[in-house]
Design a protein that fits this description.
The complex is a heterotrimer of chains A (429), B (566) and C (130). In chain A, helix 10 packs parallel to helix 13. In chain A, the strands form five sheets. Chain A has a nine-stranded mixed beta sheet with strand order 5-4-20-19-18-6-7-16-17, with helices on one face. In chain A, strands 11-10-9-14-15 form a five-stranded parallel beta sheet. A three-stranded antiparallel beta sheet of chain A has the order 1-2-3, with helices on one face. The radius of gyration of chain A is 23 Å and the shape is globular. The model of chain A has no long low-confidence stretch (mean pLDDT 96). Chain A has 18 helices and 22 strands. The longest helix of chain A has 15 residues. Chain A has two domains: 206 residues, Rossmann fold, CATH 3.40.50.740; 169 residues, Dimethylsulfoxide Reductase, domain 2 (3-Layer(aba) Sandwich). By secondary structure, chain B is α/β, with parallel strands linked by helices. Chain B has a domain of 104 residues: Urease, subunit C, domain 1. Helices cover 30% and strands 22% of the residues of chain B. Chain C has a single domain, classed as Beta Barrel (Barwin-like endoglucanases), CATH 2.40.40. In chain C, strand 3 and strand 4 form a beta hairpin. Chain C is of the alpha/beta class and 130 residues long. Classes of the chains: A alpha/beta (429), B alpha/beta (566), C alpha/beta (130). Chains A and B meet through helix 3, helix 4, strand 8, helix 5 and helix 14 of A and helix 1, helix 3, helix 4, helix 11 and strand 16 of B. Strand 8 of chain A pairs parallel with strand 16 of chain B.
Chain lengths: 429, 566, 130
């Protein structure tokens, strides 16, 4: 049986045009998706039941036991951390906030190690953005800065930019100019019309130089900035000012390198500057399919997009203090619930070492690097495959991911609901 | 079966012509009934003012741009924090509270129904998710159509039926309530960084004028038999001299419906400016109100500005960009493909600023100069003019000339040369206020028949009991009493349950979403239109089958089915 | 020799997100992409092992020749190997220095640890799916 218009739960592109073939409640083929989608839909690695670590190995346990362990762990802890969230659907994220509020813990998502700095920048200067269809239909200049869509968001260029049909562009591929800015010549750089190679850590200076040129103060710019010639910078500015609609996409090349959120702020301010001349927008390339969803949910429920600490009873936000990396590095948490992410693989070692020391529960369908650090893992149905729910695309558009096969395990929100209910009971509510 | 009896309520219920009568109100299973048995729970209102639950007919509290406003302003979040307590979740936010914060604060003020001012169809799911977490008010969504591509194309082709069919299909799909137009045509022009200069300025490429869009949508609205009229945020918002545009817009409006207005013009304060620049901007409220007074087919809401910090957020992208250029503060923008736009900027309205003082004055003038209170609804375009928690202060200003004068002394000294406020002696009455906050919004929105906005038999038992005795308090001389009373009810009752008691919300709450589903004949339905489907999948970035808001998002809901006459 | 280390996503790393104990994940995330001229200077052949040392520790990776990079720059796909040497410091931003940190490289005869061995070294316990 072929199911059309399936939504892919992998990256922030949230492509919703996949065709999935199902036989006997198993996925046998995926069409239209990229290689990452194939890996996701065709994955056969799932755990069949919750597991608990024993002295020298692992044993299978029941959902009842696993949930009780989690409840006890969180209620006993003084400073529990609830981390991850980007790989699960919105309804589960909402319950996560309620659980965290109840235990007075901290809730944080992978935003912390991805586009957290972008949010910090937005909180300083705002976000002049748009939905991806605006770019697809109008953009004649596209800039990819510090990101590599061909590897991390493989269909981005086909669905939203370079190769996509546009209402206002007769021959989109020819009419669009794609500029790539990076420290190395990536796959994406190779298909660009213009590649700007920057010295590592030089993004801030180059952005400042561009802003100066846009404002007509190009004479303060030296002959070369972070390895980029002034003539190339001037050429880029002319291209941008002559554009009818320019769209900037940026990634971890700005958020992770020296300057962090200041780099992003500078990029946003460049777009603000260009907006006085023509139409320009900027969009962060969100990595996970529902990391933006965690920001949306956390915000409407607590007021803040990530790194929220409830220990005072109110919602308290201070990234750098209340963010997961810092909490773990300072060894401040004494228990951790991880859902929809794999910090074991993606966090610096010092943080992972602390996770190994404290009681840790992982809610995840497949064994991951974090499994090695956990005391209990609770497998769940996969959102977008055998669990439905709300997701927010990298541009904020909400799309519901669907079930294409029937689940054999409970899903994230069901597990969290049980945890929440048991907690309320234990607290006499 | 749950029964409630409210004794000794001093009721003002304009829709049922009750004004200050002390009576009992009987409630059974969430509805007002004739009488109840002796086992009913009893609340003694003690002779205090009792009204139907408040209805906010234009407020920005749920959705994409509202959430933008929250997460880009952690300083606003920190300015209004409460801890978790009993049934109440923790809340954050001053001008853009979190959804629970919004819900609790509205409930404390006696509000039980609200219309979200702007929802982009593509992002409707987000609005509905936030509705679920605004649990103490029944919710409805204004659905944005101002920059809609297939609709503008249909209007250009003169095919109003097709335009109506697209509106109908979309409202059903996204569970919307009404047609909202924000700077019609301007939001599409903003897709290229441009705007429209007047209602006759054609939209780039689509070659339709705002006037054509407005007229066509009013016609479409009546074809679809929608409960509410077109809800319009006029072009040229905030520009000196824009009263001309507003008057020209008003002239477009036919008298097309005998149950209600044919146009609801929102936050008209922002559209009532004379002069030609910031240097000579002045109030034109008198002309605007003259037009309203002679046109029963128009209802407005004030859009009152109050001094202090707040956040502006509208679908009017170009307007927000210009505001950014004035304020040099942080600016967010979010254009929605094929549909509309939005912009968000934190602002500060200052008494020391002449323009802000004039704006403050104009809102009040509109309420005082509109003869018929049914035509002028109380609002601040929350949070654009001010956070909704300022409504009690506005009520006090409208009811007391003395208080108005006191505040007028504190605004910019040159204000009196640019506005007529000082010469206006009118003091609104308790009944006027009840009309402007309950009766008129219910009537304008077309939800009286659903049981909203009144306390007659069969109505929803949404009731607000305020700690004030109208026979003992003279609002003209007791502004502080008025403010205190309207800031917090003794009881807010929703569906017959006490949901808020002196500021403390007593239940988790579960609201109702009210939406419309116009029934359109097969030959006009977009579900059977290959052209529509082809263009949809080609130009949107979401597939047509994934676009509609699924059942899962609306839980308890009230669907108003209408028969479209196409 | 001093180098600048960048870590980041690759398609192969992404493909293995749900297959992290596969050989493919091991190979991809324990790869150190280096410019061919730098390989020469380090006296390394493509495929041989290199020890990468940061202020926070060291890890053995497999050298892979790559002309995309500039001389003096290396790239390691994000994963437990790269993170073994990334310091936890975030400069009060919440975001560690996943990119643009200074490291030392030297040829080594030592073997790479597997991803499970890395986890066990810091107190974890491998999970073997039957």
């Amino acid at each position: 049986m072929k199911i059309n218009d399936v939504v892919c739960p992998f990256c922030g592109c949230l492509c919703d045009d996949l065709e999935v073939t199902v036989e006997d409640n198993r996925i046998v083929a995926v069409d239209n998706g990229c290689t990452l989608a194939n890996a996701k839909f065709m994955s056969k690695e799932r755990l069949a039941s919750p597991i608990r670590r024993t002295g020298d190995g692992w044993e299978n346990i029941s959902y009842e036991e696993a949930i009780q362990y989690t409840v006890d762990m969180l209620l006993d802890a003084d400073r529990p951390l609830l981390y991850g969230w980007s790989g699960t659907h919105g309804e589960a994220q909402c319950i996560g906030v309620h659980v965290c509020e109840l235990v007075g813990g901290i809730i944080d998502s992978t935003t912390s190690v991805c586009h957290g700095p972008s949010i910090l920048a937005i909180q300083e200067v705002g976000h002049p953005g748009c939905t991806l269809g605006q770019v697809k239909n109008r953009a004649d200049v596209v800039i990819y800065w510090g990101c590599n869509p061909l590897e991390a968001h493989p269909r981005h260029m086909s669905r939203y930019t370079t190769y996509a049909d546009g209402y206002f562009l007769d021959n989109a591929f020819r009419e669009r100019k794609v500029i790539v800015v990076d420290v190395r010549e990536t796959e994406t750089a190779r298909v660009a019309d213009e590649f700007i190679r920057i010295k590592a850590g030089g993004d801030y200076a180059v952005l400042s130089a561009l802003r100066a040129i846009v404002r007509g103060k190009g004479d303060v710019v030296p002959g070369s900035v972070a390895g980029v010639s002034r003539s190339q910078l001037e050429r880029i500015v002319t291209l941008c000012k002559d554009a009818k609609f320019g769209a900037v996409f940026f990634g971890l090349g700005l958020t992770m390198t020296r300057g962090k959120y200041k780099n992003v702020r500078n990029a946003i301010e460049l777009v603000d500057e260009l907006s006085r001349h023509t139409k320009f927008t900027i969009t962060p390339m969100r990595g996970h399919w529902n990391v933006y969803g965690s920001n949306e949910v956390f915000t409407w429920m607590t007021g803040y997009p990530y790194a929220i600490d409830f220990c005072r009873g109110i919602a308290f936000y201070n990234p750098g203090e209340t963010s997961a990396i810092d909490l773990l590095a300072r060894k401040e948490c004494d228990a951790c619930l991880i859902i929809g992410s794999d910090p074991g693989a993606h966090f610096p070692r010092a943080c992972v070492e602390h996770l190994a020391e404290i009681p840790t529960v992982v809610i995840d369908p497949v064994p991951s690097m974090t499994t090695a650090l956990a005391d209990v893992q609770i497998p769940v149905a996969v959102s977008g495959i055998d669990a439905d729910g709300t997701a927010y695309r990298m541009d904020g558009v909400p799309i519901r991911v669907r079930k294409v096969i029937e689940p054999t395990l409970p899903n994230d929100r069901e597990v969290l609901k049980s945890i929440h209910a048991k907690m309320k009971e234990a607290r006499g509510q | 079966m749950t029964e409630l009896l409210i004794r000794n309520a001093c009721v003002i219920d304009p829709l049922n012509d009750i004004c200050g009568e002390v009576m009992d109100i009987a409630v059974r299973d969430g509805k007002i009934v004739e009488s109840v048995g002796s086992g009913a729970e009893v609340i003694d209102a003690g002779g205090n003012l009792t009204m139907p639950g408040g209805i906010d007919s234009h407020t920005h509290i749920c959705g994409t741009k509202v959430n933008f406003g929250r997460y880009m302003s952690p300083e606003d979040m920190r300015a209004g924090r409460t801890a978790r307590q009993g049934h109440m979740h923790s809340t954050s936010g001053y001008s853009v509270p979190t959804t629970y914060g919004t819900s609790y604060r509205y409930s404390a003020m006696g509000y039980t129904t609200a219309l979200e001012g702007a929802m982009a169809p593509l992002e409707a799911r987000h609005t509905h998710e936030e509705f679920t977490h605004t649990p103490l008010q029944d919710m409805m969504a204004n659905t944005l159509f101002d920059g809609n591509w297939p609709i503008m194309q249909a209007i250009h082709d003169g095919d109003i039926r097709r335009a109506a069919a697209i509106v109908g299909w979309t409202l059903s799909a996204v569970k919307g309530f009404a047609i909202k137009l924000t700077n019609p045509g301007g939001t599409e022009a903003w897709g290229w960084g441009k705007d429209v200069a007047s209602i006759r300025d054609p939209v780039p490429h689509f070659e339709v004028t705002p006037a054509e869009i407005i007229r066509a949508m009013i016609e479409a609205n009546e074809m679809l038999n929608l409960p509410h009229s077109v809800h319009l945020h006029c072009n040229c918002l905030g520009k000196p001299g824009n009263h001309q545009c507003t008057l020209e817009t008003f002239d477009l409006v036919p008298n097309a419906n005998n149950k209600r207005q044919s146009l609801y013009a929102t936050h008209v304060q922002f559209h009532s400016y004379g002069g030609s620049s910031w240097r000579d901007i002045c109030s034109r409220s008198e002309e605007i109100c003259r037009a309203i007074n002679s046109k029963p087919q128009i209802v407005i809401d004030m859009g009152q500005v109050m001094f202090g910090k707040t956040t502006t957020m509208t679908a009017d992208g170009p307007m927000e960009f210009n505001l950014y250029r004035l304020y040099h503060n942080k600016w967010s923008n979010h254009d929605v493909e094929l549909e509309t736009g939005s912009g968000i900027i934190p602002v500060y309205y200052s008494r020391k600023n002449l323009v802000n003082s004039i704006m403050w004055s104009i809102g009040l003038e509109l309420a005082l100069l509109t003869d018929n209170p049914w035509q002028c609804i109380l609002s601040t375009d929350n949070p654009n003019g001010a956070p909704f928690v300022k409504y009690p202060e506005i009520i006090a200003l409208l009811m007391s000339k003395r208080y108005r004068n006191e505040v007028f002394e504190t605004v910019h000294p040159n204000t009196e040369h640019n506005v007529p406020l000082a010469a206006l002696d009118r003091e609104l009455t308790w009944k006027d206020i009840a009309i402007m906050t309950r009766g008129a919004p219910a009537k304008a929105l077309g939800i009286v028949d659903l049981g909203k906005g009144h306390l007659g038999e069969g109505a929803d038992a949404d009731i607000a009991i305020y700690p004030i005795n109208i026979n003992e308090t003279d609002p003209a001389t007791s502004a502080e009493e008025v403010i205190r009373a309207f800031s917090q009810t003794d009881y807010t009752i929703k569906r017959g349950r006490v949901v808020c008691r002196q500021g403390t919300c007593m239940v988790d709450g579960k609201n109702t979403t009210i939406w419309v589903d116009p029934h359109i004949s097969e030959n006009y339905s977009m579900d059977h239109d290959p052209e529509f489907a082809k263009n949809f999948d080609r130009y949107y970035t979401v597939r047509m089958s994934n676009y509609p808001v699924q059942e899962e998002y609306i839980r308890r809901n009230l669907c108003i089915e209408t028969e479209a006459q196409l | 020799m001093k180098f600048i280390l960048n870590t980041g996503r690759t398609v192969t790393q992404g493909w293995h997100v749900e297959h992290k104990y596969h050989q493919g994940y091991f190979e991809e995330t324990s790869s150190c992409f280096i410019h061919p001229l730098d390989l020469m200077d380090l006296d390394l052949e493509d495929g041989e092992h290199v020890e990468v040392v940061s202020e926070w520790g060291s890890v053995v990776l497999r050298a892979v020749s790559c002309e995309d990079l500039r001389k003096g720059m290396i790239f390691v796909p994000l994963g437990p190997f790269a993170n073994h040497i990334i310091p936890p410091r975030t400069h009060s931003t919440g975001m560690p220095d996943f990119k643009n940190i200074t490291v030392e490289l030297a040829r080594t005869e030592r073997e790479r640890l597997t991803q499970w061995e890395l986890m066990e070294k810091i107190g974890g316990k491998r999970y073997e799916n039957q």
